[in-house]
Amino acid sequence: MPAQPTLLTAATDLATDTTSELFRAADRGVGVSFFINHTRPGAEVAPHRHPYPEVFVVQAGKTVFTVEGDELSAVAGQVVVVPAGVAHGFRNATEAVVEMLSIHPVAEMETEWLEES
Prior knowledge:
This protein has a single domain (17-110), classed as Jelly Rolls, CATH 2.60.120. Helix content is 7%, strand content 45%. The chain contains two helices and ten strands, in the order αβαβββββββββ. The protein has helices at residues 10-13, 25-28; strands at residues 20-23, 33-39, 44-49, 54-60, 62-67, 70-75, 79-82, 88-91, 98-104, 112-113. The strands form two sheets. It has a five-stranded antiparallel sheet. It has a five-stranded antiparallel sheet with strand order 6-5-8-3-10, with no helix packed on it. β5 and β6 form a beta hairpin.
């Protein structure tokens, strides 16, 4: 008999103590992890980097990314790919919640948080 699919409910099965849900691939036996972000107005994620690329899919709203010190705005329907090892963060500079996926192409996520200068 073939393996059965897994059905998860993000709000309960992937819940965190933040405004995002987290799918840890290592917990599920797959090779891609991701966050489902619900970034409130004015909220931000501090500069950090990963030893692998990160892909952001903006689903609703507008996000301002800071990538190696340069700002880049992305709106619903756009995708931002941050290369491996590159310092980045993002913020919601609007009055509405931003909905965005943050895809990590690894089973075990690694994050190096950077001090702001």
